[in-house]
Design brief:
Number of domains of chain A: 2
Number of helices of chain B: 15
Strand content of chain A: 25-35%
Largest sheet of chain B: 7 strands, mixed
Number of strands of chain B: 13
Shape of chain A: globular
Largest interface: A-B, 17 and 26 residues
Number of domains of chain B: 2
Oligomer: heterodimer
Structural class of chain B: alpha/beta
CATH architecture of the largest domain in chain B: 3-Layer(aba) Sandwich
CATH superfamily of the largest domain in chain B: Type I PLP-dependent aspartate aminotransferase-like (Major domain)
Strand order of the largest sheet of chain B: 3-9-8-7-6-4-5
Distance between the termini of chain B: 53 Å
Distance between the termini of chain A: 43 Å
Number of strands of chain A: 18
Bound molecules: pyridoxal-5'-phosphate
CATH architecture of the largest domain in chain A: 3-Layer(aba) Sandwich
CATH class of the largest domain in chain A: Alpha Beta
Order of helices and strands of chain B: HEEHHHEHEHEHEHEHEEHHHHEHEEEH
Strand order of the largest sheet of chain A: 12-11-10-13-15-17-18-16-14
Largest sheet of chain A: 9 strands, mixed
Chain lengths: ~375, ~400
């Protein structure tokens, strides 16, 4: 079977980093003036080359944008069978978010199996705005910030993932798209928000059925188990307030339990009833005043496996201290733990981060009544 | 209903496409160092017959005599009317051999884990398991209502964290379960540290020594090796590997064995193994005691082969026992190597993803006390030849 890959490069991604700007959204000119040189085209070409060296071209069809946003890189890497789905006007470099989105619309029309892109969180966000969870997305990291869960850890890893995906050895699962609010950032405010839940390429979870026979278990089956686990937990401690974190896994669990959860926000549940929806820090403190005995359910978010500090700043140090470290329940699908074998914490509060660091490990629930030990890493990495 | 048996063929085909299906090759004769595999003479590198007892004259003789005296079958479940004096004699022999108060046998090692573990823990208990434990332990654990926690392979730091966490949560019982020797890598569980941690936190220890018996502790197993025979609460083993015969065993305190008799469903609801199996098992333990040179020879072979295959450039991973992997990386390469070894008259097993990590596919070489230097050199020269031919190292 032929795999249809939509390939897109954000040629200016990663330029800001060298010159001390976080990201290039809206400030490409400035980056260029400061002497930034494009890095994404080189990484993109490299990734495709590595992929081709593992793979024979025959069963992959490439769809891309003309010029530097894909065509050039594919050609340089040696791909011949290319379909241009979107033409940049001559002379145009094609670097705006709008171009990316237009190309992605064409990808959807062509029914590609995967959008393979090179860029940073901003690029991932632009792609996600169009493809949503209709088509899986895989990124070659080339931005300044790569918090989103769609990226391989480096160029080679992304090439390998593409190869495994084309060979059906990897599967599709939920990954979070995160991005720094750049406007706020330039004003000195650090806020990585969670932007949405996309489909990414993940390692399937296998269970042994025969000696060498393994069955891969779908992520939804695992999330069902996690839901059952949390439901049991809530039945066992009915006097606790349960705070549901953000992201795809938690959302699934909440919905399964019957809670109208906010996918990207933080909600509070007491006796199985929603008592606070999409709460900010103040809102959280207020429900905690009312229900001081509380547990919070978190799941690693994005490419680095953050449970706190990315995509959920509402869960501020004050909130976490009120809940208490021992009342944090971390849940994760095993496939997520394969891509991020440590969980990270960056609360912005030195003392609290230190308390996490002292714990060293956290028990992470990976199935019904099944947990495993996972190392914690705090901000200093 | 949407479908009936058509799924059987469809799902089999899917497995076949992924290359997960098992090719069964028939041995035309006994399992020994030299075997006849479907008409082809091969050196056996894939059996668990570490001490080469499977075709030992004393085991065969004992079995034949038992057939003469007791017949071919036990006639019943162990619990009802299937236990014969020869079974009882075996239990006492095992207890003596393992230096425990008492012992009992099960049909297989698998049946011990699947039957005993579910009875040891329930709601409010926690079972703590090494991530690489054998499937039969995993299944036994799955059958309980207890909480389950997994620690990374032999990672004692993580094990301690689980115990600390369990301590806080006030469980009624905690049991640490581990293989004695891990069958994919051939490494040994850190029994001393496990027992120390267990003692510190008030947990119990359950060891499945399937690949350690006949190998470690002068053949007596991991308990003797670490001088922990009395500290390990539950000792599980099998006669189907180094002991060359068949059947599972459970050794420990008298109360454990009485408890197992009355609760383990695989023991209660399934037939006793035939009397000649019991006889062969007794003979196997006697041979291990009477011929200590066997265990010694096994280790000589192990040391020699490990050193030589490493000097050919193969990575043997964490091997500490007669299980010596030759790690080649890619699954396809490992399968190719196994096929080529077979052509060279060497019967070896490729172990591939997802049994091991994607880049850690391997041939699992299993040593045998009956192998001569000549046999080992023949295997090694095949490896040498193929490593160039297949560009392995
Ligand atoms: C650790 C372990 N336990 C149990 C078994 C199964 O033993 P038996 O063949 O007696 O069922 C094996 C063998 O595959 C094993 O490696």
């Amino acid at each position: 079977m032929t795999s249809k890959i939509g390939f897109i490069v954000n040629p200016v991604a990663g330029m800001g980093g060298r010159v001390g700007l976080k990201g290039t959204d809206g400030v490409v000119k400035k980056a260029e003036e400061l002497g930034a040189r494009p890095v994404a085209p080189i990484k993109a070409e490299q990734a495709v080359k590595e992929f081709l060296s593992m793979h024979h071209e025959g069963d992959v069809k490439w769809f891309t944008c003309s010029g530097v946003m894909g065509e050039d890189e594919l050609k340089k890497a040696g791909v011949k069978d290319i379909k241009i789905v979107y033409f940049l006007k001559s002379g145009e470099i094609g670097t705006t978010a709008e171009d990316t989105k237009k190309v992605c619309k064409k990808f959807l029309e062509e029914n590609v199996d995967l959008v393979f892109f090179c860029g940073g969180d901003g690029t991932a966000r632009d792609i996600f705005e169009v493809v949503k969870d209709k088509t899986p997305v895989l990124g070659i990291p080339s931005g300044v910030k790569m918090h989103s869960g769609v990226f391989g850890i480096n160029t080679s890893a992304s090439a390998k993932m593409l190869h495994e995906f084309v060979n059906k050895r990897l599967t599709i699962g939920d990954v979070e798209i995160l991005d720094l609010d750049e406007e706020k950032y330039r004003k000195g405010e650090w806020n990585i928000r969670i932007f949405g839940v996309a489909k990414g390429i993940i390692e399937p979870t296998y269970v042994q059925v025969g000696k060498t026979v393994f069955k891969s278990v779908s992520d939804d089956e695992i999330k069902d188990e996690l839901s059952e686990h949390i439901a049991d937990e809530m039945n066992m401690h009915p006097d606790y307030l349960y705070i549901f974190g953000s992201g795809g896994t938690i959302d699934y669990i909440a919905k399964k339990i019957g809670v109208e959860n906010t996918l990207l926000g933080i909600d509070a549940v007491y006796k199985k009833k929603l008592v606070g929806k999409d709460l900010n820090e103040e809102g959280l403190l207020r429900v905690l005043d009312k229900h001081p005995k509380a547990k919070v359910i978190l799941s690693p978010i994005g490419a680095q496996g953050f449970i706190l500090g990315r995509g959920n700043l509402q869960l501020s140090p004050r909130v976490i201290k009120r809940i208490g470290l021992d009342n944090i329940i971390v849940v994760s699908t095993p496939s997520k733990l394969i891509s991020t074998p440590v969980i990270r914490v960056d609360t912005g509060d030195k003392q609290l981060d230190h308390e996490f660091a002292e714990k060293e490990y956290m028990m992470v629930v990976i199935g019904y009544k099944l947990s495993r030990v996972v190392r914690i890493q705090t901000n200093n990495f | 209903m949407k479908e009936k048996t058509e799924f059987l063929e469809r799902e089999y085909k899917e497995l076949e496409e992924k290359g997960y299906t098992w090719v069964i090759r028939d041995l035309l004769g006994p399992s020994d160092v030299h075997v006849n595999v479907e008409g082809k003479e091969c050196i056996m590198l894939a059996s668990n017959n570490y001490l080469n007892l499977a075709n030992h004259p004393k085991l065969k003789e004992a079995a034949m005599k038992a057939i003469e005296r007791y017949g071919a079958g036990a006639g019943s479940d162990w619990s009802i009317a299937g236990t014969m004096d020869i079974h009882q004699k075996l239990y006492r022999k095992i207890a003596e051999f393992k230096n425990t108060e008492d012992a009992v046998t099960f049909q297989t090692g698998f049946a011990v884990n699947a039957g005993v573990i579910p009875q040891l823990a329930g709601k409010g208990d926690i079972l703590i398991s090494d991530e690489l434990n054998h499937g039969s332990i995993i299944d036994g654990v799955r059958l309980t209502k207890a909480d389950r926690a997994i620690y990374s392979h032999s990672n004692m730091g993580e094990l301690e964290k689980v115990l600390q966490d369990a301590d806080k949560k006030n469980y009624r019982r905690a049991i640490i379960l581990t293989d004695g020797v891990f069958s994919m890598d051939g490494d040994i569980a850190k029994m001393d540290e496990i027992c120390k941690l267990a003692e510190e936190y008030g947990a119990m220890v359950y060891v499945d020594d399937a690949h350690g018996e006949g190998v470690l502790g002068d053949g007596h197993g991991i308990g003797r090796e670490f001088d922990l025979e009395k500290k390990i609460d539950f000792q599980v083993g099998t006669f189907s590997k180094a002991f060359g015969s068949f059947g599972g065993m459970l050794a420990g305190s008298e109360s454990l064995i009485k408890f197992a008799y009355n609760t383990a469903r695989t023991w209660l609801l399934s037939a006793a193994f035939p009397p000649h199996v019991a006889a062969a098992n007794i003979a196997a333990l006697e041979v291990v005691e009477e011929e200590p040179e066997r265990v010694k020879k096994l280790w000589d072979n192990t040391r020699y082969f490990k050193k030589e295959i490493e000097s050919l450039g193969f990575d043997t991973g964490y091997s500490q026992t007669p299980i010596i992997p030759a790690i080649v990386g890619d699954s396809k390469k490992a399968k190719e190597l196994a096929e080529n070894l077979y052509k060279e008259g060497i019967f070896a097993l490729a172990i591939v993803f997802p049994m091991v990590a994607r880049d850690k596919a391997r041939i699992r070489n299993q040593m045998n006390a009956g192998m001569t230097r000549e046999d080992l050199d023949k295997i090694l020269s095949a490896y040498e030849k193929l490593s160039t031919k297949l560009k392995l190292v």
